[in-house]
Amino acid sequence: MDAIAVIDIKNSIVVRAVAGKRNKYKEVESRILAKDEKSPLEVAAVFYKKLGIRKIYIADLDAILGNGSNLEDVKEIKEQYPDLEIILDAAFAENNSPIPYLKDFLDYAVIATETAASFSFLKELEEFNSRIIISIDLKAGNLIHNIKQWQDKNLEDIISELTNFGIENFIILDLATVGTAAGISKYIKELKLNFPKLNFITGGGVKDYRDIKELKRMKFSGVLIASAFHNGSIGKREVALIENDDVLYQAAWCITGAGHLLEESISEIEKILAEHKKLKIDIYLSKAAFEVLKIYKYYHRLESLNCEIHRDNSASSPVIGRIYKGYYDLLISAPTTSNTAAKFVLGISDTLVSNLFAHAGKSKLPVVILPTDIDENLVSAAPDKEVDVFPREIDLKNTEKLSQMADTIVISKPEEVESCLKEYL
Questions:
Q1: Which of 7, 109, 358, 384 falls between 20 and 30 A from 128, CA-CA?
Q2: Number of other residues whose CB lies within 10 A of the CB of residue 184
């Protein structure tokens, strides 16, 4: 999946699009741009250098509105960054062929339902079919077009008709959601299900990575992003995640300082990673967990999993922000000591693991917990022998209270994580 940065150009200045109200577009304001960086080249440079973007969508608003064009600005971007692929909407139509630009510098030309008076000229573009993208322009679910024979046709029939020209690339965009952070419209996702083999790019309303990961799993070929880049909710790390086709799901797995069920939990991580190739697990260790893993000689085994391992250096670790950016589909704590379980129950969040649990609750991220104190009599593995353990009444009560918390599942053995994954991933 491609993370495609959007640049809207008007009078050689980049503007911010909001809900398709082009008469109200203002100069872009951004956390990632310097105050005076407004030119298309400057904005493209920031996307390229700071975010690692390698594909941009440019809407030449002057061309779309019939007020001239900004093609020289677009060409300048290509000259400065030749490996930056450009998708251009410049009101290409029967009387404004994209062929000269495709032969000169352009990577992809957009033919938009909003501006094209006819699509019969697609026959003339046959040799460029792989570089032609049809933009299905919608507003509040209604197709924007001026083609009489489409008046009584539904969207599915129109797309099918366009594929008869050999076109496989489409942008499906509802202008009413652009710049609103309202999320991708449900009917656009349903449309993709009806055309699984076509290359669909969508966008408009993307708030953060949570809005994108479902599109990625549905095999959209690209997502258009503008506001989420400028306000900082999606950055370079998220771009890499969007474009990493080897990762469709992510889980955060916390390990606390218990010897009981520790080896079994590590074995379960190994098993899950082997069976779920598109799942990435990030591992979070409490301070005691790091010590216990060393004592039991399991730390190198954990390192061999090639997972990201985060140790508790401070309770307010920046990685907790990943929860709010929507990285994770599930938070797992296994094994969970009585100390950590008590903190979970009491709402204490003064460690990395307890803080992760607290913020998972605040963001409604599902949690799976494997407490060590689940029975009145336990046999636990110490470093050199097995020992009898008798959990206190308060420990067993805390386990019960955990099972009553919202979005929380309490399990009794590590093997149960697998069934939880199937439910949430």
A1: 7
A2: 25
pLDDT tens sequence across 268-288? 999 999 999 999 999 999 999
Per-residue pLDDT tens for 21-58? Answer: 666 677 888 999 988 889 999 999 999 999 999 999 99
Distance of CA 419 to the CA centre of its chain: 24
**74 and 219 fall within a common domain:** yes
Closest by Cα among 211, 203, 204 to 176: 204
- 371 pLDDT exceeds 80? yes
The strand ranges marked E within 13-168 are 13-16, 26-27, 55-60, 85-89, 108-112, 132-139, 142-143
Q: Distance between CA 9 and CA 321 in Å, rounded?
A: 33
Cβ atoms 25, 224 nearer than 8 A: no
Q: Which amino acid is at 92?
A: F
Within a 13 Å sphere around the CA of 1, how many CA atoms are in the beta-carbon half?
30
Inter-residue contact 372 to 361 (CB < 8 Å) = no
**408-410 and 367-371 strand pairing:** parallel
Tens digits of per-residue pLDDT, 218-233? Answer: 999 999 999 899 999 9
Domain co-membership, 38 together with 76: yes
CATH of the domain at 128: 3.20.20.70
Q: How many CB atoms lie within 10 A of CB 365?
A: 21
Domain boundary among 189, 208, 243: 243
DSSP states of 42-72 as a string? HHHHHHHHHS---EEEEEEHHHHTTS---HH
Measure CA of the first residue to CA of the last residue in the chain; give whole Å: 19
Number of structural domains in the chain:
2
Beta-strand runs (E) in 140-262:
142-143, 169-174, 199-203, 222-225, 249-255
Q: In which domain, by residue range, is 357 found?
A: 249-424
Which DSSP category does 140 fall into? T
Alpha-carbon dihedral 357, 362, 367, 371, rounded to 10 degrees: 40
Q: Do both 268 and 235 map to the same domain?
A: no
**Do 233 and 348 reside in the same domain of the chain?**
no
Q: Which helix (H) or strand (E) holds 244?
A: none
* Residue 67, CA atoms < 13 Å, CB-side half-sphere: 10
Q: The domain that contains 322 carries what CATH number?
A: 3.40.50.1950
